[in-house]
Specification:
Helix 3 packs across helix 5 and helix 4 runs antiparallel to helix 5. A two-stranded antiparallel ribbon has the order 1-2. The protein has two domains: 57 residues, no CATH class; 97 residues, Helix Hairpins (Orthogonal Bundle). The chain is built from seven helices and two strands; from the N terminus they run H-H-E-E-H-H-H-H-H. The protein is mainly alpha-helical. It is 60% helix and 2% strand. This is Nucleoside triphosphate pyrophosphohydrolase family protein.
Length: 168
């Protein structure tokens, strides 16, 4: 029978490097070793690569890099931005059209089709952010900070209707 005591020392998360120590049971250590061996990785590389039980979890910035690889590289940043913003509107319009057909024309709500179109929205968002010189994680963090300032205690209709000056 394995001793299931926690190993290692806890250490506060370092927000700059995003490095931290965790305590694992012997069983958890063995599970990590098994997965690492399966993927021919060290445990530290396994953790950094986010492969858990055979699945890879892509970060938002990794998505942006992968998406931008398929963008038309002959366009200038200004043209990439124009293409991105026009594309965002076009793909959003496709989502709305699916909803319109469901609400007013008797179609079933095709969630899978909407999900595919939302993927296209994400692609154009990634390209637009890249053209502006921002990574997606920064864009999303900026949005969360803006919403926290606007709605400090969660959504409130009054705060929505009466925004502070400069709140965009």
């Amino acid at each position: 029978m394995t001793d299931n005591k926690k190993r290692g020392r806890s250490k506060a998360i370092n927000p700059r490097s995003k490095q931290y120590r965790i305590r694992l049971t012997d069983d958890e250590c063995e599970a990590l070793k098994t997965i690492a061996k399966k993927h021919n990785l060290s445990i530290s590389k396994l953790i950094r690569s986010r492969i858990i039980e055979g699945e890879y979890q892509m970060t938002i910035n990794e998505y942006q890099k992968a998406a931008y690889r398929t963008a038309n590289q002959s366009l200038t940043d200004s043209q990439q931005l124009q293409n991105g913003l026009i594309g965002l509107n076009g793909e959003s319009g496709e989502c709305i059209d699916i909803l319109k057909k469901h609400l007013f024309q008797g179609h079933d709500l095709d969630k899978y089709h909407i999900a595919k179109e939302l993927g296209d929205v994400a692609w154009y968002l990634a390209v637009s952010a890249q053209a502006l010189g921002f990574d997606l994680e920064t864009i999303l963090q900026m949005n969360v900070e803006k919403l926290k300032a606007r709605y400090p205690h969660g959504f409130d209709a009054g705060h929505s209707q009466h925004r502070s000056s400069g709140d965009i």
